[in-house]
Amino acid sequence: MSVYPHPLIAREGWPYLAATVLVALIVALALGTPWSLPFWLLALFVLQFFRDPPRAVPTQAGIVLSPADGRIVKVQATRDPYTDRDAVLISVFMNVFNVHSNRAPVDGFVESVAYQPGTFVNADLDKASTDNERNAMVLRMADGERLTVVQVAGLIARRILCYVKPGDGLQRGQRYGFIRFGSRVDIYLPRNTRPRVAVGDVVYATTTILAELGSMSTG
Question: Of 203, 154, 210, 217, nearest to 187 (Cα)?
């Protein structure tokens, strides 16, 4: 196992945490501690939302790691609209209490990144995958096989952050993006992939193994 280094609090949350703590301090000094309690609670919520703990990275060959924390809401055969081929779709729903940092599920190179504007319906609904704002990243692995990871905005989420571009290399477990507040991540896997999770399972980014890749390419 290896553990990738990074701050315990996601950098995306630093301005929000600083602002809420500052407001709480100002209210406490101006009006007294009791009046500041709601603002301290808000600061605690921001702190837990933007937490980003280090994770041990499994090293077994041929596995796909979860790109996000959350609950499995879909495991099914489908068509990958980004690579136009048959695939296995696994969807992870994140609520506001999950870690919202997104990590690479496999080692590979970024083949494409495509942002699509859209609506903001509840990310737990099936139509969120096709109607909501989303950002799709296609990864090509060393054997030439591809998979697609899609960050999907939710009812509350209004900001998808993706820090990679075509040609970049990613290692499994490496942080590559963030979605603010409730959201969803869809991962389209090669058709011969064997899922190791089921609907309702709770998963954790990097540490949970979502699936095992097949030995034969589907083309």
Answer: 210
Alpha-carbon distance of 125 to 121, in angstroms, equals 8
Residue 1 neighbours by CB under 8 Å, 6+ apart? 56, 57, 58, 59
Which of the residues 66, 183, 215, 217 is marked catalytic?
Answer: 183
Q: What is the pTM assigned to this prediction?
A: 0.82
Question: Active site includes 215?
Answer: no
Question: pLDDT tens digits for the chain (219 residues)?
Answer: 344 455 677 787 788 889 999 999 999 999 988 999 999 999 998 887 888 888 889 989 999 999 999 999 999 999 999 999 999 999 999 888 888 889 999 999 999 999 887 655 555 556 556 667 889 999 999 999 999 999 988 665 557 889 999 999 999 999 999 887 668 899 999 999 999 999 999 999 999 999 999 853 433
Q: Which tokens belong to 164?
A: 């990679």
Question: 20 is written with which tokens?
Answer: 């809420």
The whole-angstrom separation of Cα 141 and Cα 123 is: 28
Helix (H, G, I), strand (E, B) or coil at 152: strand
